[in-house]
Amino acid sequence: MKGKATSFDIAHLAGVSQSTVSRALRDSPLVKQETIDKVKAIAHQLNYKVDKHASSLRSQQSHTLALLFFEDPTTDDSLINPFFFAMLASITQACAKQGYDLLVSFQQLSNDWHADYEDSHKADGIILLGYGDDIESQPKLAQLKQQGTRFIRWGPESDTGLSISCDNRLGGYQATSHLIERGHQRIAFVGNASKHYPEFFDRYQGYVSALLEHQLAVEPALQQDAITTEDAGYQSTKQLLQGDAEFTALFAASDLIAIGAIKAIKEAGLKVPGDIAVIGFDDIPIASYTSPALSTIRQDTKLAGEVLVTTLLSLIKEEPVESITIATNIVVRSST
Amino acid sequence: MKGKATSFDIAHLAGVSQSTVSRALRDSPLVKQETIDKVKAIAHQLNYKVDKHASSLRSQQSHTLALLFFEDPTTDDSLINPFFFAMLASITQACAKQGYDLLVSFQQLSNDWHADYEDSHKADGIILLGYGDDIESQPKLAQLKQQGTRFIRWGPESDTGLSISCDNRLGGYQATSHLIERGHQRIAFVGNASKHYPEFFDRYQGYVSALLEHQLAVEPALQQDAITTEDAGYQSTKQLLQGDAEFTALFAASDLIAIGAIKAIKEAGLKVPGDIAVIGFDDIPIASYTSPALSTIRQDTKLAGEVLVTTLLSLIKEEPVESITIATNIVVRSST
DNA sequence: CTGAAAGCGCTTACAG
DNA sequence: CTGAAAGCGCTTACAG
C-alpha cells in the first residue's frame, strides 16, 4: 500500500463495500456490530484517518471553528491583551473536547475579515474576541448576521447576534463596594464610559450603582477615558492627578489600565495603596506580580471558553440558544 | 442566486468555461488578462470565495499549518508558559502573511497526537512547540519523520527533523558574563542541566563557558535542577539557599524559574539584587513588572515565528532547508 | 488562450 | 443490514 489509505482500501480488505466502511467508521446503527468491529480494526491497522476535506466537501460542514481577534487598528499589533490568551487556551481546550478544530486569526478587521472564513467553508462558525470600538464594529456584525454566518461574540449583549459575557456590571459593583468598605469615599474611574466600549460602560454602571447605594456622589471629574492599554491608563491617571478633584482610590476598567495607573501614581511620589488604592479588572497573569500585587476582578475564562464553544455549537445545530452572562469574583491582593 | 456561489455560476455569468474561471482566479498566465479581469470582477460582485475543501481535496494540499503544543503531562494544563503566547502570536501573523491558515492545538501528547493532523490531510505541515522531556519525545518525533510528515520544531537541533532555536548557549553566556561584569564570582544556575532538557542544557553550557573564560570554577553544588515553572524555581532556590554553597548571583534558566527564585530569596530575608542578583531567560511580559524588574535574555519571538513558518513552507515545497539559530539579546533591568 | 472531462475521497439518498 | 451510484466544488492533464 503506498500513499495514504482510503476507505476503498479498507473496503477491499474487509470484503465489504466502501459505503459500509464509511458507515461503520461513524458507528452507524445501520451497520452490524460485527462489521463495525472488523472495519475499525483494519482502519486502525492501516493508520487510516478520514480525509477531512473530502468529508467536509461532501457533508458541507467542516467540524472546525474559527477564532477571530478584532482590535482597534490603532493598537500595536504585536501586543495582544494577555486576557485573551487565557480565553484562547480555554477555547482551544473546549474545541478539542467537542472534537472540533480551531482556526486562529489575529488579523485586524479588514474589509472582508469575515468573508475569509465562513464563506470559504473553512469553519462552521466563528468566535469573535476583542476590545474595539463597538459602534464601529456593529455594521460588520450586522453584515455577518445578514449573510447567515453563525457567530458568537465575547462581550456584552447587543442587538447583533449572540454573545457571552462576564457580568461587567456586577464586577464594577464588586470592585467599587470593596473600595468603599475599605473606607474610601472619593473613588476615580479610569476607562471609557460610553456606548463605544460597552464592557467598560457596564463596569462604570456598576461603579455608579455602588456609589449611589452608599450615598456617595458620582463626580464626572473623577471619570477619565482610557482604552485598554497600559499607556492609556498611565496618561489618564496623570491627568486625573493633575486635576483638581481629589481621590483616595482608583478603579481601573482593566488590569492593563491599572498597571499604567500605578506607574503614574508612583511617579507623582504617592504610594499604592497608602495614598491611593488601585483595583483593576480581568486578573491577567501579570496582576499577581506587580508591585504592589494588584487587587482585581476575575473573569472566569475557563468557563467562558466552554460556554462560548458549546453555545456556538448549539447555534450551528440550530438548537435554541441565548446569550449568557457569567459571574465575576473579586481577588483582593495588596493594592487596595 | 441562492446558497454560496460556485465557479460554475461565475462561468455562466462571464460566458466562459468553469476551467477558465478556476485558472483566472489564480492568475494563471494561460489566461488572457482581459478574461482574468472580467472573471475577478464577477467573483467579487458575487462575494465568491474558492471552497477550500474542494480545492484541497483536488490539489492534495490544504494551505493550512498546524501548531501543536506539547508539554509535560505533569504540568497543570491550564498554565501555558507565557513565552509561547508570544510565539503563537508571531506564528499566526507569519502564517497570515503567507496566506496559510493556522490550526491550533494545546492537546497533550496522546498516543496518536501526531496522527490527528497531517494524516487527516488537515494541515500541510506541523509546528511543534513546547518544553518537555526531550528524551521522551524523541521516539514520537522519529515516528513522525518516518511516516513522512513535514514538521519543524522550536528547540535545539536534534537528530530527528528540522528545528529552529534561539542561541541558548549564547544567551547563557551573555547572562553569566553580565553577572561577572557586575562583580559576581559565585553564580548559581537553576534549571535542569541534562540531555532531557536540551534548551536548558545549552544555557548551562553557556554559563559554564563564561565562568571558565573568567577563570572561575564551576561548582556542581551551585547547580540545581528545575523545570520551567515558578514553583520549581521557588523550591530549587530554597534548597540552594539552605545548602552550604554561597552565592551572590543566580542565573535562572527561564523567567518563570527566576520569579520563583526571587520569591524564595525574599522569603529568606535577602534582597534582590543587593544580596543576590537574579537574571532570567525568555523575557516574558511579566518580567518587566516583577519587583524588582527582571533582567533577562530576550528571544526574538517575532523573528522566530517568521523563520519557523517560512522554513516549514520551504520544507513542504521540497526546497533545501536547514536548521537555524537565532541570536539572543540581554535585557538589563533592576534585578542585577 | 480556452473547453470538455476526469477525479480528489468521501457521504448519502436510493434500491434491495 | 448492505451495495451501486451520484455528487460535493474544485484543479489539472488532455486536446484543440
Give an account of the 3D structure.
Two copies of one chain form a homodimer. In chain A, helix 9 crosses helix 10 (255-267). Chain A contains eleven helices and twelve strands. Chain A is elongated, with a radius of gyration of 25 Å. The first copy, chain A, has three domains: 7-50, no CATH class; 64-166 and 301-326, Response regulator (Rossmann fold), CATH 3.40.50.2300; 168-298, Response regulator (Rossmann fold, 3-Layer(aba) Sandwich), CATH 3.40.50. The first copy, chain A, is 41% helix and 14% strand. The longest helix of chain A has 16 residues, at 82-97. By secondary structure, the first copy, chain A, is an alpha/beta fold. In chain A, the strands form three sheets. In chain A, strands 2-1-3-4-5-11 form a six-stranded parallel sheet, covered by helices on one side. Chains A and B meet through helix 4, helix 5 and strand 2 of A and helix 4, helix 5 and strand 2 of B. Chain A binds a DNA duplex (16 and 16 nucleotides) through residues 6-8, 16-20, 22-23, 26, 30-32, 35, 50-60, 121.
